[in-house]
Amino acid sequence: MSITRIAVGPRMSQAVVHGDTVYLAGQVANKTAGESVEAQTREILETIDSLLAQASSDKTKILSATIYLVDMATFPEMNKVWDTWVVAGHTPARATVEAKLAAPPYKVEIAVIAAK
Length: 116
Hints:
The protein is α+β, with helices and mostly antiparallel strands. It has a single domain, classed as CATH 3.30.1330.40. The chain is 25% helix and 33% strand. It is built from two helices and six strands, in the order βββαβαββ. The chain has helices at residues 37-54, 75-85; strands at 3-8, 13-18, 21-24, 62-69, 93-98, 108-115. Strands 1-2-3-6-4-5 form a six-stranded mixed sheet, with helices on one face. A hairpin with a 4-residue loop joins β1 and β2 (13-18). The radius of gyration is 14 Å and the shape is globular.
């Protein structure tokens, strides 16, 4: 099977397609770094939409999502945005954990795996 890499960088690709599966790297908010969890989540989900489109997929085909929050107290704030973004009947398996992220301005990171 072929492997297609999207947005290839020196350390990682933002997405990798292998067969009919799309693996996205953990996405963080670059434009809204340092802003609210709500703003960062919104930006991240827009980025996920874009990367999935480039891989010939979309959010209705997400199989699993892992969400990392710097502070679990912001879980409701993140969910407020998530709940308006996911499509009813197409919600993925999901885990949410509290974790220290790569840089202090990042409050949320989301990684997904999707079908094509």
